[in-house]
Amino acid sequence: MGRSSKGRATTAATPTVILVRPQLGENIGMAARAMLNCGLSSLRLVAPRDGWPNPKAQRAASGADVVLDKAKVFASVGEAVADLERVVATTARNRELSQRIVTPRRAAGEMRAWIAEGDKVGILFGPERTGLTNDDMVQADTALSIPLNPQFSSLNVAQAVLLVAYEWIASGEGTATERMSDHSTRPATKDELQNLFAHLERALDQSGFLRNKAMRPAMVNNLRALLQRTAMTEQEVRSFHGVIKYLAKHKHEEE
Amino acid sequence: MGRSSKGRATTAATPTVILVRPQLGENIGMAARAMLNCGLSSLRLVAPRDGWPNPKAQRAASGADVVLDKAKVFASVGEAVADLERVVATTARNRELSQRIVTPRRAAGEMRAWIAEGDKVGILFGPERTGLTNDDMVQADTALSIPLNPQFSSLNVAQAVLLVAYEWIASGEGTATERMSDHSTRPATKDELQNLFAHLERALDQSGFLRNKAMRPAMVNNLRALLQRTAMTEQEVRSFHGVIKYLAKHKHEEE
Prior knowledge:
Shape of chain A: elongated
Number of domains of chain A: 2
Oligomer: homodimer
CATH class of the largest domain in chain A: Alpha Beta
Helix content of chain A: 40-55%
CATH architecture of the largest domain in chain A: 3-Layer(aba) Sandwich
């Protein structure tokens, strides 16, 4: 394939999803919805069975109409991939073709690298039931197969689009794998935790909870470990100070 | 939570999916299908709106009936998680709760570690539209949020189950990220590639293609690099020998 489009590649920074001979409008709409959830918006359709536009696709898109409105229709796979430098083809089966088969995760990384180099990238998805033919598959550089339960592999085309698109967005930069939900606070410092523990220890000493001298070191260490493990926020440390203060005071009044 | 079930944990080697107050039978069936695709089969339902069993769920399961047939129904989230040591709760939104939030990928790794230790693990999914309440969320150790397009996050519950279950199966051992589709052959050895290239070079020398002495080294190296990059199989190397042999012979006859 020609490299002449390199200079224009900055306008195509995400892969194009190409649905080959899709049958059900619902699946086209659900595929569009899955795409937009994952930051993809370039859709091509090769010979959709029920013509185009398709009201059933619109209904199933649940607000992802922008993807359907911009969708381009082609008569053949060859025409749909003509301007692309890299094509990945999804397949559910082993085939007689000698083709490199990658997972969606690997494909996402490779597509990011290709796009960074300025290549235009497309991903082919086959029709319901039959999938892509060998004639379709040979239009691709790389085959993509989603590793599933060998005893039950039955994804519809919209689900396949969702998983491949999800790996695309998950492979992007800046996805922290862990964070705290409450932005109004921050993790407590070790100093704050030490102060909290000292407060608790005094209160427990006064209450008689730690009166057994032989047991005391183990009990103190277990409590300290427990507090450390909870990974408290600064807000929670302050709340906990209040809890101890209140309980200790209450206890005092009871005596 | 008690650790008394440790001894029985070998019978529960995968996480349990818990659908909380699910509304549409179709979504329950699609969730079951998504689960079985990813090797999960333990399903619990908390107060399904339309009762249980639900024929619409059966129809949407596309053969994953085994998951629905074994599904257990509970009246409350508390009862549904009572025998579990670890609970992950999926959420689409930032909440006022201070809870650790992880991605599906991180959650999959943590769930595998918990299960390896013998813990029983459940994953809560909320009802369509509203999602899990704060009262539901606090039943969980960990919140799970799927990183999606901030401008358009609109997954239905079955799609959320698919992505979380997919990360579960993808986190398992033995998923090669790349393989060849044709099991009747193997990657060519470097020796076989050298022989092939020597054959090509002889044929090209005889044909006069490499007659320009100054250009010859660069041309040879470019061809060699090209052949290396194609990552040929042994079968393809043999085919290519045939191609060269035939072309060279044909050429000879033309002269």
